[in-house]
Description:
single chain, mainly alpha, Serine Threonine Protein Phosphatase 5, Tetratricopeptide repeat, 2 domains, 16 helices, 69% helix, nucleus, RNA binding, Nucleolar MIF4G domain-containing protein 1
Amino acid sequence: YVPPQVRRAQEALDDKKREELGRLKKMVNGLINRLSEPNLSSISGQMEELYMANSRRDMNATLTDILLSACVTAVAMPARLVMEHVLLVSILHHTVGIEVGAHFLETVVKKFDELYKSDAEGKECENLFALIAHLYNFHVVHSLLIFDLLKRLVSTFTEKDIELILFLLKNVGFSLRKDDPLALKELISEAQSKANTVEKKLQDQTRVRFMLETMLALRNNDMRKIPGYDPEPVEKLRKLQRTLIHNSGSGKDTQLRVSLESLLNADKVGRWWIVGSAWSGAPMIDDTSNKTQPKLHVGKVSSKIMALARKQRMNTDIRRGIFCVLMTSEDFLDAFEKLLK
């Protein structure tokens, strides 16, 4: 039972929150509508100020919703527009914190998975794929995710998959070759064997042949064989990104090395790629037997070390054990062996 006065207070709080979120959405929408290459610096600065003044969770949710409604439509979006929107996310990812890019990436990947399974007729899948490709181009996400997506498409290998593979290779193929040539080589051989097995089932043989030719051109580093390939716009925006990030003093590596499976199961297993992320508490490992934790035997340690451990507030057996190992080991190999035990 919730007393009426408490209920009224909660309703007032909800209304106040809704009003605040509405106001925030208007402000972010106004900035995104004016987004273009020349004013990217000022808009990213204003977005940073909004991040400082509001809750990060609200800001992440609002920004992601507005960007997705701007970029994910039933018609193919201009590449330039998608690039500028992703570049803004990339700059905020480097200057505000990695949770900005992580939230956006997770939402995009989950939405892509949902639309891909539902066989949507429009160009939403391609637009979402473009967002993921440019998140990789602007160093928000590692090539691991791109290879996971390509492997998934190669394993099903329908006509829609072939179009998506071609789209992705045209956008990020040469970057993938530079980052992980071995993984690309394996993917190409997998695609070739898959093409040989399902060739008779597909009506459009020319697209399969074109895809294989594109892959071979990538392997041989031959840019001329890929029609419409123009790396200049991405390079120009990368240069702008480097300038803006350099000015902010964020030189650390903030690429998210996260797999497709981890992103899709984030609600079940937690978001290990975001430091300090809140987690709902669903069990990571289904432990039905509820076994007791094994006791840690570190050998005899002096009472002086144990007193130190207590002083440093090592309040469980495991913590005390690890502390004693680190304090009493002769060298790193000895510490490693003891920690393993």
